[in-house]
Amino acid sequence: MESPHVPPLPEVETERLLLRAMRESDADALFAMFSDWEVMRYWSRGPWADRAEALEHIARMNAGRANVEYYPWAIATQGDDALIGTMSLFDIQREHGRAQVGYSLLPSQQGKGYATEALRAALHVAFEALDLQRIEIDIDPANVTSRRLVERCGAKLEGQFRRRWFVHGQWADSVMYGLLREDFISA
Fold first, then answer.
1. What residue ranges do the domains of the chain occupy?
2. Which of 36, 11, 17 is nearest to 113 (CA)?
3. How far is residue 42 from each of residues 36, 116, 172, 178, measured CA to CA in Å?
4. For residue 118, what is the enclosing H or E element?
């Protein structure tokens, strides 16, 4: 069976950021982010417990792209190339013109506009380079910051799923946002 053609992971530059491939040298920052309770509070899994999980994650993200099209970027600052977060386009369904997006930032980097800048850059790739029509974003209803972020980019609330995830020992709801190409606010 022939492997699907998976386009290379593009590096994307913005005014202050670089979306690039994850490297082993990112492991400490990645572990700091995904082991932080506040960062993982709204995710569908708990915080990482060991730095080895960061190295495994980096290897899995980079190796998995050989057979599956998805875009797992490190969000790095332009000046020092230090990882400050992650941005991913995943569950890409070309035949339906859609994908999902996910993101995270180190707590020390939140509130500086980096998430908006990185998300808009990833959405440009989705709508322009990949020619997708729709992006879906699954958010915990209590994550007001994330909801505001996607709304700034033009996403619309489309529905709520009750008891969608079992995480941190309890059931959590999920709200689904959709962003159509024509609704994307890039500025």
1. 12-133
2. 17
3. 11, 18, 9, 19
4. helix 114-124
